[in-house]
Amino acid sequence: MAVSNNITACVTLLALICAVPVIASGVWFASAQGEECARLARWPVAILGGLLLLAALAGFVGAYWNRRGLLAFYLFAMASLVVLLIALLAFAFAVTRGSGAYPVLGRAYDDYRLDGFSMWLRGYVSDDPGRWDKVRACLAVSDTCKKLARQAAFTSADQFYQSHLSPLQSGCCKPPSVCGFSYVSPTVWSAPAARPAADADCGLWSNDPGQLCYGCESCKAGLLEALRDQWHKANVALVVATVALVILYLVGCSAYKNAQAAAIFGRRKY
């Protein structure tokens, strides 16, 4: 029985460690998306990681001091939380599956449109005008386009066209390539004699540093692409943590059953 409890204690200690990347991912989502001016998932991931940490701590205390009630709580709570984590991962993969990026001939960077993204992501920037107004105002005072405007390396249009812009820079700091604007500087463009009527963004572009393409659909798409990239990076840590937690949970269940069987056998012996 002592051996089983020691195994369970080690398992719960490892589960404590596995909860850390989940918490870190949630904190990153909640605080590290300053440049994008949007937080697609503020605290749910961090809260889920914190609950995993508390459940694992309860399991460790139960195993170390042989408190079967705490061990039973750990197994039940951990099973529920892992299921929630798997559901969250499935949702994240589903809504970030599509991309709005499309290549442009003669450009090293991509342009962006909303059509390629999932309906849920499109709704995030389109369903609530007030939300986008806040994001737009934040982008206007951020360094996203200001840094691009200060780039001394772009002495010609060809140098700019061969640069690797971020999704936000491509979508918000310049007009879409389909509009046919002529390059003057990274955030200053000369309009053609006749703007294509097929793309509404062409009429929204402004050389005003406070306007640029912040009201464009391409800017919304660039924001979603940036958030999508962040989710994919965080998903790597979350998937690894989830797999490890499932394995540790199965080992913990086995050790708990062995401890229970040993306790029953000991009582029968006496």
UniProtKB/TrEMBL annotation:
Keyword field: Membrane, Transmembrane, Transmembrane helix
Where is it mainly found?
membrane
Q: Does the keyword Nucleotidyltransferase apply?
A: no
Q: Which GO terms describe its biological process?
A: auxin-activated signaling pathway
TM ranges: 6-31, 43-65, 71-95, 234-252
| Superkingdom, natural source | Eukaryota
Q: How does it sit in the membrane?
A: Multi-pass membrane protein
Q: Which is a Gene Ontology cellular component entry for this protein?
A: membrane
Q: Does the keyword Transmembrane apply?
A: yes
Location comes to:
Membrane
Please name the InterPro entries in this protein's record: TET_plant, Tetraspanin/Peripherin
Concerning PANTHER family, the annotation shows:
TETRASPANIN-8-RELATED
What does the similarity note say?
A: Belongs to the tetraspanin (TM4SF) family.
Entry protein name = Tetraspanin-2
